[in-house]
Amino acid sequence: MDIERRATSTATPDQVWAVMSDLEAWPDVLPTVDRVERDGPAEPHGVGTAYYVEQPKVRRARWEVTEWTPGKGFTWTSSAPGLSMTATHEVSATPSGGTEIVLGMHWSGLLSGLLGLLYGRLTRSYMETEAAAFAARAEE
Fold it and tell me: What span, in angstroms and rounded, lies between the C-alpha atoms of 6 and 129?
């Protein structure tokens, strides 16, 4: 199952990236995130860094960064028995000088269909809220 949500911002891609890539600050930016805690030593964000993310109505999950391209985006994955999740976060310049924000979620595994039925609507709502919040914070 795949979900994608897009938003645009009048802020530059660098401004949006600064907000999006500050993972520990997400609870202050995103109403959909209660807590982000790094799993491991403090080091620069990048491939291999991992975080525990707590969200309302969703169980705590460990996410590990698998791709990190400063100024462009990142991908991280989380898994549980019967389920693998991949979330993407991308920014790109628009012709008008603003930014397009693209958030994606891919679920796979034996339980992905059930997860889609149970959490698809909530996930879509969270992703729309998050894309808009990244845009709004970057524009401040």
Answer: 10
Q: What are 23's two structure tokens?
A: 């993972």
pLDDT in tens, 24-54: 999 999 999 999 999 988 788 899 999 999 9
Domain that holds residue 121: 2-139
Q: Where are the alpha helices (DSSP H) in 23-111?
A: 26-29
Task: Report how many domains make up the chain.
Answer: 1
**Predicted local confidence at residue 94, as pLDDT:** 97
Please answer whether residues 134 and 100 qualify as being in contact, where contact means their C-beta atoms are separated by less than 8 angstroms: no
Q: State the pLDDT at residue 71.
A: 96
Sheet holding 35-38, edge to edge: 2-9, 99-108, 83-93, 73-80, 58-69, 50-55, 35-38
Rg of the chain on CA atoms, in Å: 15
Give the H or E element holding residue 86. Answer: strand 83-93
